[in-house]
Amino acid sequence: MGYRIGAAKNMIYSNFAQLYDDLMEPAIYEEWEQFIARLTGKKDMTILDLACGTGRMAVKLAQEGYTVTGVDLSDEMLALADQRAHSQKLTIPLLQANMTDLSELAQFDMVISCLDSLCYLQNPQELKRVFLQVAQHLPAGGLFVFDVISPYQTDKIYPGYTYSYTNDEQAFTWESYSGEQRHSVIHDLNFFVEDKKTKQYERFTEIHHERTYEADYYLKLLLESGFYKAKVFGNFGREEIKEQTTRFFFVCHKK
């Protein structure tokens, strides 16, 4: 499960971007790349990675032969993405923008948004605004693929959820509890990072809010936004969704 932000209005990563990046599991990006490959069947495509974060997905897709552009609201995330691209000797355009306003961007064959970035949007109006923006930057038949956490995840799994991670230099705790809005959750993240000089640990805290909706509501907004065909799946497109599906994967075609 992801805890990347870097996308929604007023919800950007701070100086802890590198810490988040260290905690993300590489396997999820491999799953996403295989998912995209199954959908497209070809590599000569332009892809916009919406809320690209530290660039792991963008770099992986570029290494596979896709032409990728990354967009994120967080300059800290984009700085890490730029470092990652250069370390792999790749040139990837990385642009700072809010996903609710993509007016300065060109068209792409495909737009993706990974790791529930859309769940950091504050309300349905912002969500639909993003869908409309994406549709405007796709050609007829263009693909929009994204994932979000499900109401089962926010309502049943996350409340009371705890996670901790420790190594020789830092410690991390994650606690989740229900938000005030329906199908919303609040994540309380705490980092304890060692100061190399003093050998003391400094604590950093961030509060993250996520919100999701029923699958049918996403489909309704997508159809209203110009996607003539939109389907939802579980497990990276391999399964139909069920009552206990924790993450929805949407595959949408523009009219």
From TrEMBL:
Pfam families for the chain: Methyltransf_25
Entry superkingdom: Bacteria
Residue ranges constituting the Methyltransferase domain according to the UniProt record: 47-142
UniProt keyword terms in alphabetical order: Methyltransferase, Transferase
Listed GO biological process terms: methylation
Keyword NADP attached: no
GO molecular function, one term: methyltransferase activity
UniProt cross-references to CDD domains, sorted A to Z: AdoMet_MTases (cd02440)
Official protein name in the record: SAM-dependent methyltransferase
Organism per entry: Liquorilactobacillus oeni DSM 19972
